[in-house]
Write a structure and sequence with these properties.
Elements (H helix, E strand, L loop, with lengths): L2 E6 L1 E4 L4 E8 L7 E7 L6 E7 L5 E3 L7 E6 L4 E6 L8 E8 L6 H4 L7 E2 L3 E6 L1
Parallel strand pairs: 2-11
Antiparallel strand pairs: 1-3, 3-8, 4-5, 4-9, 5-6, 7-8, 9-10, 9-11
Length: 128
């Protein structure tokens, strides 16, 4: 049974940086896509970023482009989300997610229904 275990997050002032990590435990796990979603209070869970297994292809929501960077360390079964120049509107619970779906269309990669495995979520709070 694969579990995604998240770490990182916390409280930071606007303009600051945080790094989230997501590690797979249980068995060797090499998902084709690893993604990050976030959910603010009273809002739907929304797509933030995704990365293909090779690490060469990434996708970002417009709201985080140029500020967030996702990466993978396949040797450690881990993925990371580096968040720079954080804004108060980035405040949310962040979730990592993974799927083995190889043939996902680009518009599917940003939808939470594609992903079979989810981390426990970690709080990110950005103060103004």
């Amino acid at each position: 049974q694969v579990q995604l275990v998240q770490s990182g997050g916390g409280l930071v002032q606007a303009g600051g940086s945080l790094r989230l990590s997501c590690a797979a435990s249980g068995r060797t796990f090499s998902p084709y896509y690893t993604a990050w979603f976030r959910q603010a209070p009273g809002k739907e869970r929304e797509f933030v970023a995704a990365i293909r297994y090779s690490g060469e292809v990434t996708y970002y929501a417009d709201s985080v482009k140029g500020r967030f960077t996702c990466s993978r360390d396949n040797a450690k079964n881990a993925a990371h989300l580096q968040m720079n120049n954080l804004k108060p509107e980035d405040t949310a619970v962040y979730y990592c997610a993974a799927t083995n779906e190889y043939y996902a269309a680009t518009n599917q990669i940003t939808t939470k229904n594609l992903y079979d495995y989810w981390g426990q979520g970690t709080q990110v709070t950005v103060s103004s």
